[in-house]
Design goal:
With 347 residues, the protein is of the alpha/beta class. The protein has helices at 2-9, 42-54, 62-70, 89-100, 124-132, 156-178, 195-204, 237-244, and strands at 23-27, 29-30, 39-40, 58-59, 79-85, 107-110, 136-139, 185-187, 207-209, 228-229, 247-248, 251-255, 260-261, 267-273, 282-285, 288-289, 293-297, 300-306, 314-323, 329-338.
Length: 347
């Protein structure tokens, strides 16, 4: 199957390196009293921003970054954007002011059903004010569902229609609060997506953003754009630096097409431009090393890896890196969403 796919796609692959690259950082809470798995403290956030500046990064708003990548930004240019997911009040109270103090603007993906007048959620007034101050407010769906999950007895057509309605409802509601329609962009809730969902958004004219590390270039899957997740468990710059300085692997095709699986040790094959044999590619399944095999034929490298132990039920990642010049790495991350048989994992 994979060999046949290589023959099918190789004529359309350019055996050259990417012409542009950039990184996007993704945060949730900016606070000390929220779960570390989805939070950084204000001090950690400030340290991240200071480190980006010290490394020589130009930090721009997300829409400018996307436009510059599409226009052919230099691959060695240090270009970054800051994004936030969910409508948390701490983003408005701590995150956006920290950006403004440096003359930067952020992008906030709003799940409109989470907006309210009490608790930890932003209010409508806060959202409108952030918009007036020049930050980018974007769609994170209406109800923040696990979009890859079909309901019992739900057909594929019914499932996709339900998800489409949730996405469109979120954008419509956000537009009413902003007084203008937001860009047709979506951050996948939980970073979960699948091939049918990506195809649906492509047909809707949407860009969509994930929660997996890596740099983007003009060849990125525009319905699964990588963003580097930052939280209290991985907020130290020593942990982040290699990811933030990453360059994109020239991956053009993956087998399987998405990471929804019931297999305990799933195999992943990447088709890459050029000859990657002897490039000291390092791959990991979670924290464990997973030795890849690399074959080369007709200008295309076929990289295959499989975990040697069962991956956990739930979300996990395969990560592959290879050394580039100037102390930087090529980086690719793949998200698995493993079910227990036919049962979905609890969140």
């Amino acid at each position: 199957m994979v060999r046949g796919l290589v023959k099918t796609v190789m004529l359309s692959l350019l055996c050259v390196q990417s012409a542009s690259a950039a990184v996007i950082l993704m945060y949730h809470h900016i606070g000390a009293d929220t779960p570390p798995a989805t939070s950084v403290t204000p001090e950690q956030f400030a340290e991240n921003l200071d480190s980006l500046a010290a490394e020589g990064f130009e930090v721009v708003r997300l829409d400018e970054l996307i436009e510059r990548v599409r226009s052919g930004a230099d691959p060695r240019q240090k270009l970054a954007a800051i994004t936030f997911d969910d409508a948390y009040r701490s983003i408005y109270e701590a995150g956006l002011p920290a950006l403004e103090a440096r003359g930067w603007k952020g992008a906030v993906f709003i799940n409109t059903g989470g907006v309210g007048e009490a608790g930890r959620a932003m209010t409508r007034a806060m959202i409108a004010d952030a918009h007036q101050r020049g930050h980018l407010l974007l769609n994170h769906s209406q109800s923040h569902p696990h979009m890859v999950r079909r309901l019992p007895e739900e057909t594929e057509q019914e499932w996709l229609a339900r998800i489409r309605t949730d996405i469109e409802s979120g954008r419509r509601q956000l537009g009413e609060w902003l007084g203008e329609q937001p860009l047709p962009w979506l951050a996948w809730p939980y970073g979960e997506q699948s091939a049918p969902l990506r195809a649906m958004l492509r047909g809707m004219g949407y860009l969509a953003f994930g929660q997996h590390s890596g740099a983007l270039d003009e060849h990125v899957d525009w319905q699964n754009i990588p963003r580097i997740p930052v939280n209290g468990l991985h907020a130290d710059w020593r942990s982040l630096r290699d990811k933030v300085l990453a360059l994109p692997f020239p991956v053009r095709t993956t087998v399987p097409a998405d990471g929804v699986t019931s297999e305990p040790r799933p195999s992943l094959t990447l088709l890459l431009n050029g000859d990657w044999r002897g490039r000291n590619i390092q791959c990991f399944a979670g924290p464990r090393f997973a030795a890849p095999t690399v074959r080369f034929s007709d200008g295309v490298s076929e990289l295959t890896l499989r975990s040697e132990v069962d991956i956990p039920v739930g979300r996990s990642r395969y990560n592959c890196t290879a050394a580039a010049s100037e102390g930087r790495f090529y980086w690719y991350s793949w998200v698995w969403m493993r079910r227990a048989g036919e049962q979905w994992y609890a969140e």
